[in-house]
Amino acid sequence: MARETLPVIVTNRLILREIEEKDCFDMFEYASLPYIGPVAGWQPHTSTNYTKSVIKMYRNKYQFGQIGVYAVHLKENDKMIGTIELHTLTKNFKAELGYTINPKYWGCGYAYEASREVVRFGFDDLNLKRIECCSFIDNLQSKRVCEKLGLTYEGIRKKGYLLYDGTIHDLLCYAITDEEFYDRVRLETW
Ligand SMILES: CC(C)(COP(=O)(O)OP(=O)(O)OC[C@H]1O[C@@H](n2cnc3c(N)ncnc32)[C@H](O)[C@@H]1OP(=O)(O)O)[C@@H](O)C(=O)NCCC(=O)NCCS
């Protein structure tokens, strides 16, 4: 598959652009913390070189039919404060929304703000029919982001996730279809 760069997305306070190697220092700042990666399904980063290798892997996702990963930057100072992506993508069908924000910036609505535009991109530009967002059941912040977005709660996928350490976890599942999304657009609630 040919390499395509993700289109830049601009929101009120954020600029989303495809993650690049130079984001490694800002990413390492939060990805090295012990309580971030494990709740999102990945191991804490052990060095900036490891972070660089993760970014390289993200940028190579297109080889596997995936679109890649957005770095979330603050407009005011260009600080990279997290990532957001539509992963586990099946072309013209569905994908899963995933996000991580540096804890220094939690609770400011950034995950919500970025998600709104990434979901819009998924339906408008990628022609998706369904976008899912799943988290471990005790991840109340992610649950809240899904609720704020107005995604439909679909229940618990019991033993739905095998973590890198071999432990198995239940998943809290939310989703939105293209019809639900365009209804919301028509009602100007998206
Ligand atoms: C999930 C995550 C991306 C949210 O980022 P964020 O930018 O803080 O999200 P937002 O500010 O848009 O929304 C968070 C909401 O959770 C609420 N919240 C925070 N702590 C909470 C708690 N302990 N219980 C319930 N709600 C909580 C916030 O108040 C906010 O809701 P509000 O706007 O109604 O006040 C961030 O917590 C994170 O990176 N977590 C680690 C990685 C992760 O879990 N990724 C998702 C894996 S599926």
Walk me through the structure.
By secondary structure, the protein is an alpha+beta fold. It has a single domain, classed as Aminopeptidase. Helices cover 31% and strands 32% of the residues. The protein is built from 6 helices and 8 strands. Helix 1 (24-31) crosses helix 3 (48-59) and helix 4 crosses helix 5. It starts with 8 loop residues before the first strand and ends with a helix. Bound molecules: coenzyme A. Coenzyme A binds at residues 36, 39-40, 98-101, 106-112, 135, 139-142, 144-145, 148.
* Integer-rounded radius of gyration: 16 Å
| CATH fold name | Aminopeptidase
Poorly predicted runs are none
CATH homology group: Gcn5-related N-acetyltransferase (GNAT)
Straight-line N-to-C gap = 33 Å
Strand content: 25-35%
Task: Write out the distinct hetero groups bound to the structure.
Answer: coenzyme A
Helix/strand order: EEHHHEEEHEHEEH
Strand order of the largest sheet: 1-2-3-4-5-6-8-7
Looking at the structure, what is the overall shape?
globular
Q: Give the helix level as a range of percent.
A: 25-40%
Largest sheet: number of strands, sense, barrel closure: 8 strands, mixed
Number of strands: 8
Counted by DSSP, the helix tally is: 6
Given this structure, which CATH class is correct? Answer: Alpha Beta
Summarize the structure in short.
This protein is of the alpha+beta class. The protein contains six helices and eight strands; from the N terminus they run E-E-H-H-H-E-E-E-H-E-H-E-E-H.
List the helices and strands and how they pair.
Elements lengths: L8 E2 L3 E5 L5 H8 L5 H4 L7 H12 L9 E6 L5 E11 L3 E8 L8 H15 L5 E7 L3 H10 L2 E11 L5 E10 H9 L4
Parallel strand pairs: 5-6
Antiparallel strand pairs: 1-2, 2-3, 3-4, 4-5, 6-8, 7-8
Helix pairs in contact: 1-3, 4-5
Bound molecules: coenzyme A.
